[in-house]
Specification:
Layout lengths: L1 H8 L9 H13 L5 E3 L2 E6 L6 E7 L17 E3 L2 E3 L3 H18 L7 E7 L11 H8 L4 E4 L7 E5 L1 E10 L3 E2 L8 H14 L5 E10 L5 E2 L2 E10 L5 H11 L3 E4 L7 E2 L5 H8 L4 E4 L12 E3 L14 E3 H15 L5
Parallel strand pairs: 3-6, 3-7, 7-17, 8-16
Antiparallel strand pairs: 1-2, 2-6, 4-5, 5-18, 8-15, 9-13, 9-14, 10-12, 11-13
């Protein structure tokens, strides 16, 4: 599995450019006798289960582009002791090879679920139409998804959603020296105060950009501002959008609504199994393929999210080994 990860590191796989990495992984899986299928740059294989329940294992094969701070060749996998350096080693190569190894071990004996392993594209850009959302219709009903991302092998039982709103307040232009016009900036400030004071539970509304006016002596007739919306699961993006549109006088236009928050209750069997194994639960502030999965998911994987998208990215071999063992212990014989 480490040799496979090294090959993937050496194969650039930026979002929407994952073809060569998908080719490599597909050939490797076929060489291992796995019944691999492909749609675009998404790969999957599956084994039948003893019930109608389905468990999906997912990791992504795309990476961001290397930052300017790299002191190493990002595409040259370098193993120093327990540490493997290279772009995509931590995000998301470690989870990908660990889940693939766990799939091989779990599928070697009957499980009380249909088991699917998937490696998907375009996660880093939350792509629509080319990543996991392209694949899901091919898989049928899924009861639980394990999303492999670097979480130190702790359980991300919720994930913060993201939505960006472009708002425009309208006024009437006039000369600033006379009592003319309606100042759109002031109208925007009223709406911004409404956003600041909204007691939406587990939703953070942050105005992060504002623009108005053309010159100092003209009352601005428009004022635009941007709202960053982060929700932790109680409200969907569409519910938050409806609340904001009803409360603001400004025009509100969403850039997208598909990056929703996710949540799995602690009473779920997989979380209970994890707690029994000594794992901890937390809310993840970063987005992943969870946002595109319309079913219950748990995010967990080897590595550390703090290393993702950083220069000289790395993962430890011991983290991958521990990840494989934990995945198997968490999922072997799990009743969904």
């Amino acid at each position: 599995m480490i040799d496979l990860l090294k090959q993937l590191i050496a194969t650039p796989s930026f979002s929407r450019e994952e073809g060569p990495a998908a080719d490599l992984l597909e050939a490797w899986m076929r060489g291992q006798g796995l019944p691999v299928h492909r749609l675009g740059n998404n790969l999957w294989c599956e084994t039948p289960g003893t019930t109608e329940k389905t468990l999906l294992l997912n990791a992504h094969i795309d990476t961001v582009k290397p930052s300017s701070g790299y002191t190493r060749d990002p595409f040259c996998p370098t193993l120093e002791g327990d540490t493997l350096y290279g772009l995509g080693s931590n995000d998301d190569g470690g989870s990908l090879v660990a889940l693939l190894a766990a799939y091989r071990e779990l599928s070697a004996k009957p499980q009380p679920y249909r088991l699917i392993f998937s490696a998907t594209a375009e996660e880093e850009i939350c792509g629509k139409g080319g990543g996991i959302d392209l694949l899901l219709p091919e898989l049928g009903k899924v009861d639980l998804g394990i999303i492999g991302e670097p979480t130190k092998m702790q359980m991300a039982v919720s994930e913060t959603g993201l939505m960006v709103l472009d708002c425009t307040a309208h006024g009437v232009s006039g000369h600033a020296a006379r009592e003319e016009g309606v100042n759109a900036l002031y109208k925007a400030m009223e709406d911004i105060e409404w956003l600041r004071s909204q007691p939406l539970d587990q939703v953070k509304l942050s105005v992060t950009m504002i623009s108005a006016g053309t010159q100092h002596n003209v009352v601005p007739d428009t004022c635009t501002f941007v709202v960053d919306v982060r929700s932790k699961g109680r409200y969907s993006n569409l519910e938050v959008l409806d609340r904001v549109k009803a409360g603001l006088k400004s025009d509100v236009k969403e850039r997208s609504t598909h990056i929703n928050a996710s949540f799995i209750p602690q009473t779920h069997p997989v979380v209970q199994r994890g707690l029994a194994l000594g794992l901890t639960c937390f809310n993840s502030p970063t987005t992943s393929n969870q946002a595109l999965c319309p079913f219950t998911t748990l995010k967990i994987g080897p590595g550390d999210s703090a290393r993702s998208h950083t220069a000289d990215e790395y993962i430890r071999i011991s983290e991958i080994e521990a990840g494989i063992k934990t995945y198997v212990a968490l999922l072997d014989g799990l009743a969904l």
